[in-house]
Amino acid sequence: MIGSMTAGCRNLGGVRVVCVCALSTLAVLPGCGERSTDASGRILNASVLGETGTHVGQFVYPRGMDLFLMDGRPMAVIVDKTARLQVLDLDSGSVVGAIKTPEWDQGMPTGLTVGPSLLDAQKQAVYVADTHEHRVLMYTLPLPFADEPGATEPAFAFGSFGREPGEFVYPTDIALRLNADGSVREIYVSEYGGNDRVSVFAVEHDDDGMGVRWERAIGVASETVDGSDDPRSLSRPQSIAIRRLADGSEELVLTDASHHRMGRFTLDGEPIAWIGSATDTDPRAMRFPYGLTLLDDSTALVTEFGGCVVRHLDLDSGETIERYGAPGRADGELATPWAAGVIDGKVVVLDSGNSRLQMFRASGITGEQHASSGGRP
Amino acid sequence: MIPAQVTLGSLVVGPIQFGQPIMLVLIAVLGVLSILIARKSLAGLGRSSRVAALVIRILAITLIVGALARPEFRRTTDAVGVTVIVDASRSIPTTAQSRIDQYIAQAQNDSRKGEDLLGVITAAEGAYIQSTPSKHTRTIDRQFIGGTDGTNLAEAVNLAIATAPKDASNRLVLVSDGNETDGSILRAAQAAKAVGIPIDVLPVEFDYSEEVIVDSLQTPSNVRVGDTISVKVILTAVRPAAGRLMLSQDGTPIDLNADENELGEIVELHAGRNVLVVPVQVRRPGPQLYEAVFEPLAVLDEGGNPGATIGDSIRENNIATAITFVGDEGVVLIVAEDPAEAVVIEDALHQAEIQTERINASQFASNLPGLVSYEAVILINESAFSFSESQQELMRQYVHETGGGLVMIGGPESFGAGGWIGSPLADALPIRLDPPQKRQMPRGALAIVVHSVEIPRGVFYGKEICNAAVDALSRLDLVGIVEYQGLGGTDWVYPLSPVGDRTAVKQSIQDLQFGDMPSFDPSLQLALQGLKNASAGQKHCIVISDGDPSLSRTLLRDFKQAGITISSVGVNPHSPGDTNTLRTMARVTGGTFYNVSNNALATLPQIFVKEAQTIRRALIWEGEPFSPAMAGVPTVTMRGINGVPPIGGYVVAAEREGLSLVTLRGKEEDPIAAQWEYGLGKVVTFTSDVSSRWAPAWVGWDGFNQFWEQHVRWAMRPGGNATLRVNTEQVGERTRVIVEAFDPDGNRLDFANFRARVATPDGSGQLVEVRQVGPGRYEGDFSSNDAGSYVINMQYRAPGKEGAVYEGSAQAAVTRPFADEFRSLKTNTPLLQQVAAMTGGIMLPIDASTSNLWRREGLTPPVALTPVWLAFALVGIGVFLLDVAVRRVRISPAAIMASIRRSARKEQDKSTGAADAMRLARTKARSRTGDDDGVSRKSRKFEAAPDSTAASAPIALKGESETDSPLAKPKRTIEKDEKPVDALSALRAAKQRAKDDMKDL
């Protein structure tokens, strides 16, 4: 069709050039400038990876995801409700590694972050918020295939149940603060279940090896439905990330899920700003923001478990730029999503309720995943 | 050559299938017609044009007729979908299960192609899909497999057929020992054959070579108190073995050897059938349940010496039971917590020479034989919570199936106030426990907040719990359910509204999704708001959760301020933190916290019933004493009673429509005493009490004994006068009941009308149709395929001499000792071979490496059909237009060649200047118009010819056209004032001009 139209333009001299260019643009850059969603918010042209099941390449209600590059290829590491971590090659759709966490009698992990290994900063590792086992695990990447529980022991683990400083009830996510040389300086762990705080651990090396030491906590558990009892009150901080600003300073960004808002804190724990319906002119209020990914253009992707949508918003103004997704089971629709990220220009959404990933390109999302969101060390 | 295939009602030509091939006949008919017509209509064309036109016309006809024949494009796929059906029943040894998994994991790898699909279904008592056919499935993962005390291979095969992917060729692999206890695998195999799905079989080989089975326990069916009966235990041993035999009577062990300190007796069994006879003296009347248990100790060698191994491996087939009926005067069972209340009834009955036994609820029987020995049961001020759900069902069954009597006497813990609303026994009562609709009573409001129940079959249990809670409420109470729905957020799935007939709320419960809520807050806020606005006396909230959503403490204080209690039920909390959240919820609001572990799920509905009951206290009426009004209908129960003393309280209930009879009425016509026949039995209710609390005047009333004797005697199971001989025999999975009836003179009793029911082990009952098959001989049968005891109860009426009527009743019992699953001692390979042969499958080799699950042989690749009639029609229309064009538009090869030459010349002219091109064009134009001398046409009046003599010639500014001007050789045109030329002439002229043009070229 394009060929015949080009031939038709031939006799029009100079017009022909314009015509060919226009056709080339249509042919080569499909989707460029097009809307990524329809009027109801459904994502257009989304490609789907994964299905429900317990075999390799299948998921049972996946609840944690992070994206990273391995040998230049885009990868996603995903943990589901069978306590399996699977590394998925997003280009080919094949699984390149899968393990099971050692124990899950109490429940399964819900948060993942990829970053430099604590043992060797040159290597990548995946940090697992082993929520219902009340601890943090670290596995060095790449992961092998070892489906038997505990066949692969974590390279490093810390944490135990409790309400004292340094103890966890339900850890939900991990963020890494890095040194200039790329090694991990501090580990931030968010949790809920009565603690509802972000604990900060310093990474220490000495002659005996490496360890973590509790330093401080950010936020306090909320007593109220709307978080009005304390300027720092949190209720289920589900995701956290370290934001590096242009001037080199850093701040902690988190989703305060049960208060339906996001918060920006100094690394010392002082609140900077809350982002939610109070700061946003978007008519649709944020509902249970679970996933958070910072992009390098001062925007963020927030995955709303309750809203079944991925919200792209400006961190400084608190304004929503665009929303992607609508509740449902069809392609382009989302059911209780837990996480989203951007890699190689593609937005990847963990569509948990549908036990799958959905990938799409969005013209409005130009930033790449921020290093401290995990995944792009 | 395009292969053609004719199937029933369709024709396949290459990739195209015609759904209505009969239409294709039109091609031949219309083709011949076209040829005939063309001989005349196309005669004016040249030969080649005529042939072309004819061919195109036939082609158009072919395509359009083809469109009418419903053409469809066929696509086939090469993928193979294999569904493995794994026998997960208990007849397969555990060690064999892991071998099966390894076999399949290894076998599925070989020759598997990328698009091939593997699915897994387990078969035991029921069939469950473990993996739907998927290219990702590589191994057998067992999730929920249901009960394993049976094997229903047929259900699994049917399920596999139903879930077979439509886009692949399908094959089933049946891995089993071939011992089925339910369904028919052969019938299912026929279904598989019918849809072209072969079944490969892999027999699981095993052989229980040292097994001991207690085949049966035999006791006389009817004896009298004091008789010594012979209890026969029949055992089958594959090898000689020794073990301890134990016998019990209604749960009480019988000492078989007084010389030993231990109960039971050590016996030695020889290979084959062994019969052990134990004499037992019968000491009390009624049905007696005997149970024999064999505990293996060791296998014996040929010399009778014990070996090193126990041998016997299946414990389930070491138990057998039997029932004997012991006749005597009836005994009435009184169940009461307060002895003072029981004593007054006991005294009344003893004076009437009715024997009684008194127990409290904790001593109540847990099986039917333990209850059937009583002629009637009297419950005095007993609450439903004192009995398990199964005991309540047992009472209902006791009345309905066995003809026992039930007398329920009230009190503050009884009837609706005691949680009996919605209980199994409520159906058996002659009154409705819900208050009458007309009564204005303070009502309760209950909001249920449900969270995901993360346990196997959690959704099922969750729905059962909600149903139980709703059942326990009265129709006037308010109930609402709040749920977190994954896609829709938190909302009332059933808004707070009256329970009514429960249809709507139960439909909402059926639709519950049990979403995983992140926070309790939105749900509790909704519940709080709803309960606050509700017009109800007592308000309560129940939360069921694993406790991991977040919770705001201030919200709990809001509940407390509103006077609304929350009871929390922790189902498998993940951590102490979760438990603490739920406990706090209950503590702060004044409710109750229940912690339920996985293995205590059965108690969940009870918890909800009890919780719902907290809003049920409004059903008690207490006030100024009054004498209940007597109904005018004379009854046996009220014979000789002309009035009753006053009562000061009772539990409000409603009259039940139908056959129930209210004999005493209270305020606003509330039933106080009522009675009816329920199934084979009779039931009496008295909603006031027999204590000084509500009826102090009754205890001293001189009609008290008469009142209760008459009511209890009416309810008691009737005795029989005629003699019945009842025998049973097992026929497959059914039991036949054979009754021989005699009248009091010993003659055979004919024309008796039997009402018979059987109480089955699962707690349900079924009607047994007993028909006369010979003189005094009657037969009926019922299904008895489950393990356990079946108690058959029969009542009859028969015409006697001189208008007399003979009445009587009889009981019989049958026991199935254990599930047939445990009778299988070796693999049923022939059955599996038959299944494979019937469906075109094979017996898979034992060596997994040589086993090819993905064989393509014998499989019919699936065909996907896409309608293409539109394409046929469109192309046909296009060809039809071409047909018109061929006939109407003459195409000259010379003209085409000229056009090509002209194009070539144009290309050449591109190298010359624009002026030359213009000139050339003008020259050509002149040549076409015949203006060879290069003079402009007259009509181009503003264009001067370079060599014209126009300057000297007169110029006409207006007026007539200068037809005689030497400057112009005008082309003929039709002026306005010229006479019109007829169309045919104009066409002829145009044709001539065209010919001239061609000549010019």
Radius of gyration of chain A: 22 Å
Helix content of chain B: 25-40%
> What class, by secondary structure content of chain A?
mainly beta
**Total E-strand runs of chain A:** 29
Integer tally of domains of chain A: 2
Largest sheet of chain B: 8 strands, mixed
CATH class of the largest domain in chain B: Alpha Beta
Assign the CATH architecture of the largest domain in chain B.
3-Layer(aba) Sandwich
Termini gap of chain A: 45 Å
> How many distinct helices of chain A?
2
* Structure classification of chain B: alpha/beta
Under CATH, the homologous superfamily of the largest domain in chain B reads Class I glutamine amidotransferase (GATase) domain
Q: Rg of chain B to the nearest angstrom?
A: 47 Å
Query: Which consecutive residue ranges of chain A, at least 5 long each, have pLDDT under 50?
Result: 1-32, 372-377
Number of helices of chain B: 21
Task: Give a structural overview.
The complex is a heterodimer of chains A (377) and B (1001). Chain A is mainly β and 377 residues long. Chain A folds into 2 domains: 1-30, no CATH class; 43-373, TolB, C-terminal domain (Neuraminidase). Chain A has 2 helices and 29 strands. Chain A has a 5-stranded mixed beta sheet with strand order 4-5-6-7-11, with no helix packed on it. In chain A, a hairpin with a 5-residue loop joins strand 19 (237-244) and strand 20 (250-256). The radius of gyration of chain A is 22 Å and the shape is globular. Residues 1-32 and 372-377 of chain A have low confidence and may be disordered. By secondary structure, chain B is α/β, with parallel strands linked by helices. Chain B has 7 domains: 4-76 and 866-888, no CATH class; 80-207 and 826-854, Rossmann fold (3-Layer(aba) Sandwich), CATH 3.40.50; 212-327, Immunoglobulin-like (Sandwich); 331-436 and 619-715, 3-Layer(aba) Sandwich (Rossmann fold), CATH 3.40.50.880; 444-614, von Willebrand factor, type A domain (Rossmann fold, 3-Layer(aba) Sandwich), CATH 3.40.50; 723-815, Immunoglobulin-like (Sandwich); 893-937 and 971-1001, no CATH class. Chain B is built from 21 helices and 45 strands. Chain B has an 8-stranded mixed beta sheet with strand order 20-19-21-22-36-35-34-31, sandwiched between helices. In chain B, a hairpin with a 2-residue loop joins strand 13 (241-249) and strand 14. The longest helix of chain B has 22 residues, at 47-68. The two termini of chain B are 48 Å apart. Mean pLDDT of chain B is 80; it is low at 930-978. The A-B interface holds A 51, 53-58, 106-107, 132, 134, 161, 169-170, 192-194, 196, 222-225, 229, 235-236, 238, 257-258, 287-288, 290, 305-306, 308, 327-328, 335-336, 353 and B 131-132, 134, 136-139, 141, 143, 454, 486-489, 515-516, 518-519, 521, 525, 548, 550, 552-555, 574-578, 580-581.
